[in-house]
């Protein structure tokens, strides 16, 4: 199923937490009711106790519950109100806990599905990906969604209820005044809404600036070594600095404009409040509204402030959530590797497998073919080499053989089974491509060999021995537990290549592709390495890509690649006999 971020999908997720949601809201409503009745005590105190007016409440208490004097009632009501506030606070803490865990759960799931999507993203997409942009989406935008979910689920219903309750109370106290307030209030709200309209847009610009800054900084730091070697620190850091400046400008813009909009809308609200207050005073002077009830109305006006703002703000939160969703969807929109549902496994039960490439053409950019009409037949267990000048398409071909790039034209048969019927994971479990530029993790040597799989001590030692690494490990201060540094910076290029070879040995594939995997080794070490690999590779199908004769002299068959075409092929002997071939020129 294709994942997608939208308000609808968020609501659907919320509904999956229906039980908690209902429970949380019941708690929230209880917490709200406990405090929202408090202003009703004002008329009791003011009118009945101070002004001697009778709303029948004190008289009811004195006959049914408790008879005391004014001081006693004031203290009694005080204690009762404090108890109400205390209960309400505890309930609201509990309610927050429920809502926070709902929203964190939803955002966690969103992150997981984003990660799952990225896991399967095609290499072509990956190559164009700005890593900083992707990470900022997973951090900032998902956080925005979190804010939306937590404020929506915890506040929207409760805020509406507070408004409803307050409206009912106001209508009950003095319906004409209440109608005036309730009809004018939306106008005030509308003003404030209009004012803050651009906040969402500004926020979007600020987020984008954050993303650009992050991705520029990421690249600078990732290529730090290279940058230093080229003496270009100031250029690249200046670039990041420029991004930081842009970010500052956007942030200032967002910071003060959103604040201004907030304050102005508050000002409008307060002015409204002042008007309502004056009208209420007039109502006391010219109608039968009591002072205590007037004070209760003032209190309710305040009670209504924050729910009204929550409801006004809801649409901004909604707008920012929608924007965050759009950005998150740009990750979900990235193409994934093709999925083969029910794969065939031609590798099962055989030590090696033959590979046939049929009429394969390939282009990174439309219509610019990097490989054209490639036909190859590699028999099970045979040792084949591909040679060609730099840029002739060797690495591209190797990548295609392990399914890194989808085939648009042509077909590859693995043991007679078309690539279209094979799961990519099956291909990669059995065909091991040793990358031309193997990358190491900033972890221990052991982790870099096993990549988290568990192998016996003996297997690791054997792989190290075959890859000519035993002496290298012996010289490391902590042996296999030595950290290799970022990108394996503590190792030489040749050592890194040998780590990649040891990795391959441990995973024991049926087909091995060496993509210039020994290019950084001296001829002597290379010879020893291939000698040690000889038994290991005996039954496997092996494709060796190289542009050095020493690497491929033992191949049984050689393909010569030139500008994406196979221009020649044959046994080393046959090719050597032809003076003009690339192979003989390698000598
Ligand atoms: N990811 C890519 N996107 C676009 N063009 C690429 C990409 N990788 C390689 N190329 C181009 O494809 C051609 C073949 O590259 P490659 O297969 O790496 O050659 P080789 O391994 O023989 O040196 C080169 O011209 C290179 O510029
Ligand atoms: Mg290459």
Blueprint of the fold:
Blueprint: H1 7-16, H2 18-36, H3 41-50, H4 57-64, H5 70-119, H6 123-128, H7 131-173, H8 175-195, H9 199-222, H10 224-229, H11 233-286, H12 291-303, H13 305-332, E1 355-363, E2 369-378, E3 383-388, H14 394-401, E4 409-414, E5 417-418, H15 424-430, E6 431-434, H16 445-450, H17 457-466, H18 470-475, H19 493-507, E7 511-515, H20 523-537, E8 541-546, H21 549-552, E9 557-562, E10 565-570, H22 572-577, H23 582-585
Parallel strand pairs: 3-8, 3-9, 6-7, 7-8
Antiparallel strand pairs: 1-2, 1-4, 4-5, 9-10
Magnesium ion binds next to α14.
Any overview of this molecule?
The chain is of the alpha/beta class. It folds into two domains: 99-332, ABC transporter type 1, transmembrane domain (ABC transporter transmembrane region fold, Up-down Bundle); 355-585, 3-Layer(aba) Sandwich (Rossmann fold), CATH 3.40.50. 64% of the residues lie in helices and 10% in strands. The strands form two sheets. A six-stranded mixed sheet has the order 6-7-8-3-9-10, with helices on both faces. Strands 2-1-4-5 form a four-stranded antiparallel sheet, covered by helices on one side. Helix 3 packs antiparallel against helix 12. The longest helix has 54 residues, at 233-286. The radius of gyration is 37 Å and the shape is elongated. The two termini are 55 Å apart. The protein binds adenosine-5'-diphosphate (ADP) and magnesium ion (MG). Adenosine-5'-diphosphate binds at residues 127, 364, 370, 388, 390-396.
């Amino acid at each position: 199923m294709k994942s997608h971020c939208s308000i609808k999908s968020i609501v659907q997720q919320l509904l999956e937490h229906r039980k908690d949601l209902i429970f949380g809201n019941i708690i929230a409503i209880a917490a709200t009711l406990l405090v929202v009745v408090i202003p009703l005590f004002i008329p009791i105190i003011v009118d009945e106790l101070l002004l001697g007016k009778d709303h029948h409440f004190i008289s009811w208490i004195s006959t049914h519950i408790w008879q005391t004097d004014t001081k006693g009632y004031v203290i009694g009501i005080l204690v009762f109100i404090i108890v109400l506030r205390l209960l309400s606070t505890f309930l609201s803490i509990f309610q927050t806990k429920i809502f926070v865990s709902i929203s964190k759960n939803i955002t966690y799931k969103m992150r997981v599905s984003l990660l799952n999507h990225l896991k399967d993203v095609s290499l072509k997409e990956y190559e164009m990906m700005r890593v900083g942009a992707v990470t900022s989406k997973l951090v900032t935008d998902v956080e925005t969604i979190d804010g939306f979910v937590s404020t929506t689920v915890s506040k929207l219903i409760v805020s509406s209820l507070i408004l409803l309750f307050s409206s009912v109370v106001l209508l009950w106290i003095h319906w004409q005044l209440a109608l005036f307030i309730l009809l004018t209030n939306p106008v005030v709200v509308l003003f404030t809404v209009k004012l803050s309209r651009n906040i969402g847009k500004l926020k979007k610009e600020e987020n984008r600036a954050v993303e650009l800054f992050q991705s520029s900084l990421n690249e600078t730091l990732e290529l730090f070594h290279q940058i230093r070697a080229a003496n270009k620190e100031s250029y690249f850091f200046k670039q990041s600095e420029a991004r930081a400046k842009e970010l500052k400008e956007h942030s200032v813009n967002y910071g003060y404009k959103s604040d201004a909009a907030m304050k102005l809308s508050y000002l409008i609200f307060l002015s409204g409040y002042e008007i309502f207050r004056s009208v209420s005073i007039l109502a006391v002077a010219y109608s039968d509204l009591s002072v205590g009830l007037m004070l209760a109305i003032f209190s309710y006006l305040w009670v209504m402030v924050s729910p009204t703002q929550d409801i006004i703000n809801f649409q901004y939160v909604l707008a920012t959530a929608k924007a965050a969703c759009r950005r998150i969807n740009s990750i979900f929109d990235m193409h994934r590797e093709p999925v083969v549902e029910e794969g065939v496994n031609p590798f099962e039960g055989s030590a090696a497998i033959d590979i046939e490439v049929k009429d394969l053409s390939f282009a990174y950019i439309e219509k610019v073919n990097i490989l054209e009409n490639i036909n190859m037949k590699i028999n099970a267990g045979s040792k084949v080499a591909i040679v060609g000048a730099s840029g002739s398409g060797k690495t591209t071909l190797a990548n295609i053989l392990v399914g890194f790039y989808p085939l648009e034209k042509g077909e590859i048969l693995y043991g007679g089974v078309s690539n279209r019927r094979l799961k990519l994971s099956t291909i990669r479990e059995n065909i091991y491509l040793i990358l031309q530029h193997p990358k190491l993790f900033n972890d221990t040597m052991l982790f870099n060999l096993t990549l988290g799989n568990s192998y016996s001590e003996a297997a690791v030692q054997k792989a190290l021995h075959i890859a000519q690494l035993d002496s290298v490990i012996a010289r490391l201060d902590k042996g296999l537990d030595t950290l290799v540094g970022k990108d394996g910076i503590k190792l030489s290029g040749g050592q890194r290549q040998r780590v990649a070879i040891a990795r391959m040995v441990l995973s024991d594939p049926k087909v091995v592709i060496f993509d210039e995997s020994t290019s950084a080794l001296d001829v002597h070490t290379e010879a020893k390495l291939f000698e040690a690999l000889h038994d290991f590779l005996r039954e496997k199908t092996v494709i060796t890509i190289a542009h050095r004769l020493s690497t491929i002299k033992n191949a049984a068959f050689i393909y010569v690649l030139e500008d994406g075409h196979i221009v020649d092929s044959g046994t080393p002997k046959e090719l050597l006999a032809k003076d003009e071939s690339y192979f003989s020129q390698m000598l």
